[in-house]
Amino acid sequence: MPIKIYNTLTRTKEIFTPLDPSNVKIYVCGITSYDYCHIGHARSALAFDMIVRYLRYRGFPVTFVRNFTDIDDKIIKRAAKQNTTTEELANRFINEFYIDMDGLGIDRPTLEPKATEHIDDMIALIAELIASGLAYQAGNDVYYSVNNFPEYGKLSGRNLDDMQAGARISVNEQKENPMDFVLWKGSKPGEPTWKSPWGPGRPGWHIECSAMSRRYLGSTFDIHGGGQDLIFPHHENELAQSEGANKAPFVTTWIHHGFVTIRDEKMSKSLGNFLTIREIAKLYHREVIRFFIFSTHYRNPLDFSEAAMQDATAGLDRLYHCIAAIDALPEGTPTAASGIPARDQEILNTMEERYQLAMDNDFNTAQAQAILFEAAKALNKIEQQLPRNPAAGDVLFLRETVVVLKRLAGIMGILQEDAAAYLSGKKTALLAGLDIDEATISAMIDERNEARGQRNWTRSDEIRDQLLARHIELKDGPAGTTWEIKRNQT
Q: Measured in Å, how far apart are the chain's first and last C-alpha atoms?
């Protein structure tokens, strides 16, 4: 089945047809490195991490480029405030970025160019635009002439006449059109500068990505992505620059993810609802964060709340409990007949096919998660109905199914821990708040097992109820008695 992707440019889902199936080329706008990353940055990085993983899973080799903007007005202002250089500030927060991304288990891109390492590429591109009549010098600045690019606005769906009507030109502005945007900024006192044919200065923001994407991916490539807030003006201006200079289509498919909100409000420092990745990572396991991010389709808004994170924690725990139960099964009896119902076998045998159908539909991770839960439900049902000495073939089938389930979940970066170790770690942390420890629980389970062996059901039930009163729930299965904590988590 083909992969279908919603293309921002055409506003439709289209069959993904790479220009070169042996090398799918993707460019994603990275951070402006002047501060710690927030949960919105996490969503962006995770969304494209998932997309790249899925394309590779489907057999496409991928060259993935994500840049760093390491020179920008915000960087200059923050560096001056902290009495440091823009280079030191930018590199410091690039290092902090890696700490956050590595902590989330995000794979590194193929290439991660920095803007300041490609000034010559930007100067060459600006010169091409001037030569073709698409850019002009005004004082020490260079601007892109939107009137000379008839398709300006096609990505965002905006009409240039409407944009011009709503624009304002300041008294000292030298633009020919209020919508013209800067390609090269003449130097100002105290700012970093580079030599250029138009005098010392530095590049504008938009030209950076046009130059770096062309350098590493060519004039036309498969996928360009970022957040919805980048559609205009950044990606619109990139498209105008690149197609104007290259005289060729810039990008085949544009992918944009939705915003992260806090209690249904867009995240903002001014509103006091700004959450950094490392603040959240102190409270939740990285797979919980990933589970939460992918519980909603990447194009939809995603509201961060404690309740949503608790739901993600509970959902991930359910999947890990299922895997742990299968891992703990005995090897089984080789001569025993299979006892797995045909309907449950069908659910598990078609899991990967149905997962692919969900992901082929514009990377629908929410639906894909539902398929993982459906498989876990079938696995739990089978495991609970197995006899104490199950058929070896049934045990093998269940374990092979878990391998497939974990491989599919790995596209979203979840279920990659050892299940028993993951759950044990959670238990240890949760038991710290209860008046009981694992040794006591184990001793009580041993006593209960002895009572059951003596058919002393009254004592067996008493021990079960004593543990439940202390939030410990027992579960009896083919692998023996297991326990988990049952209480409202705050």
A: 44
Number of helices (H), then strands (E), belonging to the chain: the values are: 17, 15
Give the angle 108-286-428 at the CA atoms, nearest 5°.
Answer: 140
- Say what the alpha-carbon torsion angle 267, 12, 239, 117 is, to the nearest 10 degrees: 60
Q: Which two tokens stand for residue 280?
A: 């959240």
Low-confidence stretches of the chain (pLDDT < 70) are: 165-173, 268-272, 429-430, 432-433, 479, 487-490
List the one residue out of 397, 399, 434 whose CA is nearest residue 419: 399
Q: How far apart are CA 245 and CA 266, in angstroms?
A: 36
Tokens for 100, please give them.
């956050």
Please tell me the pTM assigned to this model.
0.88
CA–CA separation, 479 and 127 (whole Å)? 71
Nearest CA-CA partner of 177 in 207, 201, 197, 153: 153
Residue 449 has φ and ψ, to the nearest 5°, of -60, -40
Q: Which two tokens stand for residue 364?
A: 């629908």
* Strands laid side by side in the 181-186 sheet: 135-138, 141-144, 181-186, 201-203
d(CA 210, CA 183): 11
Question: Which residues does 85 contact at the CB level (< 8 Å), separation at least 6?
Answer: 79
